[in-house]
């Protein structure tokens, strides 16, 4: 579940995480990973995640009657922004004054774990499989061929993801083609878009050519002193109008 409730004296705060996943071993929970997707850097992210983690630990406290094993709660932030994360990753960094040296050992060492998704090393990207690999390779090298050639399990969703990450609205135009079985690889959508563009260019070229031809013929007829009716007749005959 991604929902948790924080109870205060006069109100309850309902909070939702982007994604929560248990790590299971032998049917038992060994860890809880809370993941947050960020496109912008949030200075106060450690406080936000601390609220999520605190609710998860409180739930474990309430479940102690069932004699459940205590498991760690880990906060992960996926930074999809165009710049590496420079904001705070610990609550210590947010404290606006210097703590006495003797007091520092009493401060919690909780922190969030940030991954800059646009800047993952190649050896890390290679550990991913499926659609996630396509997205990561696109972020690392939009002009590369690897992300274009790999077959997609969820072509519509990946295409929307590429739009969200790039802001290029052309990817939204590819969605119907991908979702209706037109292609399983991004290269197929790009090829179709290229063919469509060429066809449009040819059509526009033909239209422009006709328009220019009519203008030349009308100008010539005018110089020869032909009437409007004679000029219109020659245009209709010449261009099969």
**Rg measurement, Å:** 30 Å
Share of β-strand residues:
15-25%
- Outline type: elongated
pLDDT averaged over residues: 81
* Elements, N to C (H/E): EEEEHEHEHHHHHHH
Unreliable runs: none
Based on secondary structure, the structural category is alpha/beta
From the N-terminal CA to the C-terminal CA, the straight-line distance is 67 Å
Biggest sheet: strand arrangement: 3-4-5-6
For the largest beta-sheet, the strand count, sense and barrel status come to:
4 strands, mixed
Number of strands: 6
Q: Helical element count?
A: 9
Q: What is the share of helical residues?
A: 40-55%
Describe the structure.
This protein has nine helices and six strands; from the N terminus they run ββββαβαβααααααα. The chain is α/β, with parallel strands linked by helices. 14% of the residues are buried.
């Amino acid at each position: 579940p991604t929902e948790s409730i924080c109870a205060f004296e006069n109100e309850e705060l309902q909070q939702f995480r982007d994604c929560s996943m248990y790590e299971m071993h032998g049917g038992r929970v060994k860890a809880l990973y809370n993941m947050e997707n960020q496109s912008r850097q949030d200075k106060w992210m450690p406080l936000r995640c601390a609220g999520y983690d605190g609710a998860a630990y409180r739930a474990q406290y309430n479940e102690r009657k069932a004699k459940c094993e205590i498991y760690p709660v880990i906060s992960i932030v996926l930074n999809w922004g165009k710049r590496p994360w420079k904001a705070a990753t610990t609550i210590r960094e947010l404290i606006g004054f210097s703590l006495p040296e003797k007091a520092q050992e009493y401060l919690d060492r909780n922190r969030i774990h940030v991954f800059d998704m646009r800047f993952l090393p190649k050896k890390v990207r290679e550990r991913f499989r499926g659609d996630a690999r396509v997205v990561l390779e696109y972020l690392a090298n939009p002009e590369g061929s690897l992300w274009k050639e790999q077959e997609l399990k969820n072509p519509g969703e990946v295409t929307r993801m590429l739009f969200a990450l790039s802001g290029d609205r052309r990817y939204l135009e590819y969605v119907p083609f991908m979702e209706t079985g037109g292609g399983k690889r991004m290269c197929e959508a790009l090829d179709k878009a290229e063919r469509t563009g060429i066809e449009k260019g040819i059509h526009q070229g033909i239209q422009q050519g006709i328009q220019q031809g009519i203008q030349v013929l009308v100008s010539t007829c005018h110089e020869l002193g032909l009437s409007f009716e004679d000029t219109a007749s020659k245009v209709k005959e010449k261009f099969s109008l």
